[in-house]
Amino acid sequence: MSENFSLKAFVVLMKASRTLEEIIKKDISSHGMRTSDFTILEALYHKGRQTIREISEAVLINTGSITYVIDKLENKGLLERSDCSEDRRVVYIQITKQGKELMDDIFPKHQKVIEEIFEDVSTEDKQVLIDVLKKIGNKWESGK
């Protein structure tokens, strides 16, 4: 019987994904944060002011859960809300000075962990991986 490379690729991808998720969770928790807190702060840190919807789409947390996380981060002084003057239904979220200082400290360390994960993978192989994963994701995002 011939080997099913699609199934094998799927299993390897899922195992690698689980391993990477555990490494990242451990790294983020070493800074006293939860993954959801970090991903929201990271989005604001790199992209600037965002609406709740934009953050939700960027970090893949549903809008119901994200409000709870934003409330906690706001209470810690790491981000703040501001109303949109053109549309009262829209609320902007932005990182505070305290939040930026925290991310200035944490993010380079986090990036180093990610660099270590991929240190034995050539630039060419990383590009192939990016292209393949985009191809898979785009096929199913567009409704196949």
Automatic annotation (TrEMBL):
Ranges in coiled-coil conformation: none
Keyword Transcription regulation in annotation: yes
Domain HTH marR-type: 6-138
Highest taxon listed in the record's lineage: Bacteria
UniProt entry keywords in alphabetical sequence: DNA-binding, Transcription, Transcription regulation
UniProt cross-references to SMART domains, sorted A to Z: HTH_MARR (SM00347)
SUPFAM superfamilies: Winged helix' DNA-binding domain (SSF46785)
InterPro entries for the chain: ArsR-like_HTH, HTH_MarR-typ, Tscrpt_reg_MarR-type_CS, WH-like_DNA-bd_sf, WH_DNA-bd_sf
Presence of keyword Lyase: no
Pfam family, any one: MarR
Name of this protein: MarR family winged helix-turn-helix transcriptional regulator
Gene source species: Oceanobacillus longus
Taxonomic path: Bacteria, Bacillati, Bacillota, Bacilli, Bacillales
